[in-house]
Amino acid sequence: MKLDLQNNRVAKILGTKYPLIQGGMAWVANAELASAVSNAGGLGIIAAAATPPDILEAEILKAKKLLEPGRPFGLNIMLMSPTAEAALEVAVKQKVPVVTTGAGSPGKFLERLKPLGTIVIPVVASVAQARRVEKQGADAVIAEGMEAGGHIGELTTMVLTPQISEAVKIPVITAGGVVDGRGVAAAFMLGAQGVQVGTRFICCSECTVHKNYKQAVLDARDRSTAITGQSLGHPVRCLRNKLTAEFERLESQNAPAKEIEALGTGKLRAAVVDGDVEWGSLMAGQSAAMVNEILPAKVIIENMFAEAVKIMND
Prior knowledge:
By secondary structure, this protein is α/β, with parallel strands linked by helices. It has helices at 9-14, 31-39, 53-66, 84-93, 107-113, 127-136, 157-167, 181-189, 199-202, 211-219, 242-252, 257-264, 267-272, 297-313; strands spanning 20-22, 44-47, 73-78, 98-102, 119-124, 141-144, 150-151, 172-175, 194-197, 225-228, 236-239. The chain is globular.
């Protein structure tokens, strides 16, 4: 199997040089990171998360100023967020070219955005979800394995990608565990036609997260992550620290859901902005163990695809 970047379906849909989407990491995926990835030939994403609409719109306008002419960008909307509807309206107003969605059913978002020509790509964690959003009109799907950082599903990338690739006709984009050209090549061999990369871009030069957060990713080893919030039905993968240990303690004691939820309140901001690596939520995937240096987004992407082409085409 050859990797043909010139005729890649995902790159054509996105209008990018490379079939790569940067993950919509809350508090991490801002205008600086998104524009850097887009200018490097991928699709940079701004995370709406729970951002107030006026601040989100300002971030989008900032990204537009930083983008080179003709470079597309995207917005990630977490559907379970209380500000999801407001983020949708901002996307419509600012004519965001691509919207990725997660943590919920994107039906009404597809109905609103598709007539405007917006490319909509939901993140899915099962075959059933992939089939459903295909019927609803999604342009592609992001099949995210549980190796990923942040909110995760139950299936691994290795088994999720081929099953979804066989189940739908729209392009499949693999997420979870992709950090270099080997991951890209593996994703394509499993049936994907693109990749979404999150954790690797935490340690890119243009990423504005606190230096302590970046160092924690650089120091990660193969078993450095833990999954919190399983008892709440919303599992999240983070780097192990005092916060994850306390989550594990409360969950093992069957503590009330409100107490467990309260423990996580504000902890992602504490990690990203304040650099609290002990009690902050250091969301990162298992691929953090494979990140060993801070590089510009352009270098990361070019190296990734040069390695993938060498593996698949030599």
